[in-house]
Automatic annotation (TrEMBL):
Protein name: Uncharacterized protein
Any Pfam family hit: TPR_12
Keywords on record: Repeat, TPR repeat
Species of the source: Blepharisma stoltei
TPR repeats: 116-149, 492-525
């Protein structure tokens, strides 16, 4: 959306004869995973009778007759460039626009406005084909031209710097990206109350840059300023305003401000619906809005939003079935990300059913869909199926020209699946291959490096190479912060694992801080009532017990119970586990009666679990023993003896009278009776 708006402004300034038709999709700089999709820049008038072949013949004739610097060639180069754009070949098109610019640059009296517009147009074509080096070169020329046109302190320079910042961002040079934005700031601040859309779009880009640096308040201020200026420039309903609302929604989401994110997505959807822009950018908004409604547990609204998005898919041009399959697939992925595997399965299977009816070759979208199927299978603990889908995804990605970073991600994913399958040597070979690819291709994409390093850290943890695991997790955290900011779902498991490693080395203060971070991020990203929040609270409570901070442990366990009961129900093993933890907390604080009550709740749950699955015997027997300890600590020897007798009888019935616990319990019982 930023590029769409900047391009529209560049085109409006043009003195060339151009049509109003152009097609764009959205661009966001919210994270290093942001993707630039296609858009079409200036379209010069092309006569229907001028075929590419005839144009090329005329060019050859003119070059022969008048030389390759003839002004007459400019129009022909423009027509050829636009003809190739019409065929969808932007790479060849750029060569003709380059030729036209070279002729203009060589003239003694250059039309600077014409040249400026051409620099902008060609620059954005380079961005379209993701050629950062050429985009930087052309926008640097634009900056120099701006200095020629209006001196060293001009509006044109500030605008050129804004364009140049976009190219630096594509080149993943955050330092230069921010430097350009800072240099443009003084002029833009002077015009903050203007109706100049260029100023508004500058503050949009700057707001996104500040969000990446986790400067929350400044980011929101910039985006709000941008929105006001753009609304004054284009009115209350425009593509430009929808683009800002879209980006604001993602930044609010990045910051954990869910309600504000929902409002911004709804504004963007309303604008695009009003403008009848039924394309993939609108479909994307519905998908993310459905995700957010699910996140706040508004399941009815979430499903309605998904269905509305599906209706938009049906209104788009082209292969609607293919697009609908992709849409359902990504909805399934979103629900998987939220931990709702039942809903995830529903939408992923809808996607798969459509794909199976389509007679299509392997495509880029199919590769992404198989990747999502693999992650879903992994979350369902079906490692074999996860590996099968991941291998299909990798095969398609290699065949369809995915970037080295994307291919490395798929290789690393296979490594991670083999880690949790317990085949560590196979996992290590995949991870080494992924890392080697990133190094050989000099990949700058920090999300790819993050994924690879995180997988290596889990491998080291599984291999019990604790020092290497901790160091690698910490490196991954630094990359995640640069790539995503402070609040991204991938932080949670990493912080939890860091906590476990610190706890293993008895560095309890560091462990507690890591668990707190996992909880904080998980609540902001997935909500307080998420399963992982429950798990991390259990870890935190256990760590507090280890350092004898019993009050803090009890608070963590109470929070876990509050989350766990609606998730699991009263008779689930996890509920029994929390009752057991709380029973110990109350015992240590000498709240005897409450402790006994909680132990009995845990015993009843564990007994039900044991009756249906003998693997739970250790929990049932252990809880009976803990109840006896509590009675003994209270001074109630009669009930203590009764509890220890139940423990003895349980192990006698389960393992026979020669089991060590049978003799141990009898000794304990005799000791209490003797006193």
């Amino acid at each position: 959306m930023v590029l769409r708006s900047l391009w529209r402004l560049g085109r409006a300034a043009s003195r060339l004869n151009c049509s109003a038709s152009h097609h764009t999709k959205s661009l966001s700089f919210l994270s290093c995973q942001a993707r630039m999709l296609s858009f079409r820049p200036i379209r010069f008038f092309v006569s229907q009778s001028n075929t590419i072949e005839s144009l090329q013949v005329r060019v050859a004739q003119l070059e022969k007759e008048q030389g390759d610097n003839s002004l007459s060639l400019i129009s022909l180069y423009d027509q050829l460039g636009n003809a190739f754009i019409g065929m969808g070949d932007s790479i060849i098109a750029t060569t003709y626009f380059e030729n036209a610019i070279k002729i203009i640059e060589k003239q003694q009296q250059r039309d600077l406005d014409n040249l400026k517009t051409r620099y902008i147009g060609l620059g954005f074509m380079y961005l379209e084909i993701k050629d950062a080096e050429k985009a930087l070169k052309i926008f640097k020329k634009l900056l120099q031209l701006a200095k020629e046109m209006q001196g060293d302190n001009s509006k044109e320079i500030a605008i050129a710097l804004n364009y140049l910042s976009v190219a630096h961002k594509l080149n993943k040079d955050d330092e230069k990206y921010n430097e350009c934005l800072d240099l443009a700031l003084p002029y833009m601040q002077k015009n903050i109350n203007s109706n100049d859309a260029q100023v508004g779009l500058y503050f949009q880009v700057r707001g996104e840059a500040l969000a990446l640096k986790n400067k929350v308040n400044e980011s929101i201020d910039c985006l709000c300023t941008s929105r006001k200026i753009i609304e004054r420039s284009f009115g209350p309903i425009s593509n430009e305003l929808a683009g800002i609302d879209r980006n604001m929604a993602f930044i609010y989401l990045k910051l954990g401000m869910v309600n504000e994110s929902i409002d911004a997505f709804e504004r963007a959807i309303h604008a695009l619906q009003t403008l009848k822009v039924f394309d993939e950018s609108l479909i994307e908004l519905y998908r993310h809005l459905a995700y957010l409604y699910k996140r706040i547990n508004n399941l009815k609204k979430s499903k309605e939003t998904i269905e509305e998005g599906a209706e938009v898919v049906k209104k788009t041009k082209g292969d609607n079935k293919h697009l609908l399959a992709i849409y359902y697939n990504f909805v399934g992925y979103d629900f998987k990300f939220l931990g709702d595997l039942k809903a995830s399965k529903e939408w992923l299977h809808k996607s798969l059913e459509i794909f199976e009816t389509l007679e299509i070759e392997n495509t880029e979208q199919m590769g992404i869909c198989y990747q999502n199927f693999s992650m879903y299978s992994y979350d369902c603990n079906d490692n074999d199926k996860a590996i099968e889908y991941a291998q299909k995804a990798l095969e398609i990605k290699r065949a369809t020209g995915f970037s080295p970073g994307e291919i490395a991600n798929s290789i690393a994913a296979l490594g991670q699946y083999y880690i949790f399958k317990g085949e560590l040597s196979t996992a290590e070979s995949y991870l080494i291959e992924a890392k080697q690819l990133l190094e050989d291709k000099k990949v700058k994409d920090e999300t790819a490096w993050d994924f690879c390093l995180t997988a290596f850290a889990f491998l080291y943890k599984a291999q019990e190479k604790d020092a290497e695991a901790l160091e690698t997790f910490q490196k991954a955290v630094e990359i995640k912060r640069r790539a995503y900011g402070e609040f991204h779902g991938s932080f949670c498991e990493v912080y939890s694992s860091i906590g476990e490693l610190y706890e293993k080395s008895n560095s309890m203060h560091e462990a507690i801080e890591a668990y707190k971070k996992a909880i904080d991020v998980n609540i902001k990203v997935f909500g307080r009532d998420d399963l992982k929040t429950y798990q991390y609270l259990c870890q935190l409570g256990s760590a507090y017990r280890t350092v004898r901070k019993i009050q803090e442990a009890m608070e963590a366990h109470n929070d876990a119970l509050e989350i766990g009961l609606p998730l699991f129900g009263e008779n689930h093993f996890n509920t029994g586990f929390i009752y057991s933890c709380l029973a110990k907390d109350h015992r240590d604080l000498q709240y005897w009666d409450k402790s006994i009550q909680l132990h009995n709740k845990a015993i009843n749950i564990y007994k039900q679990c044991y009756d249906s699955n003998r693997d739970f015997e250790q929990y049932y027997g252990s809880e009976l023993y803990c109840l006896g300890e509590t009675y003994e600590a209270k001074g109630d020897n009669i009930n203590a003896v009764q509890s220890y007798t139940k423990v003895k009888d349980f192990y006698n019935d389960t393992y026979g009278e020669n089991h060590e616990f049978v003799a141990e319990m009898q000794t304990k019982i005799d000791s209490i009776i003797a006193t």
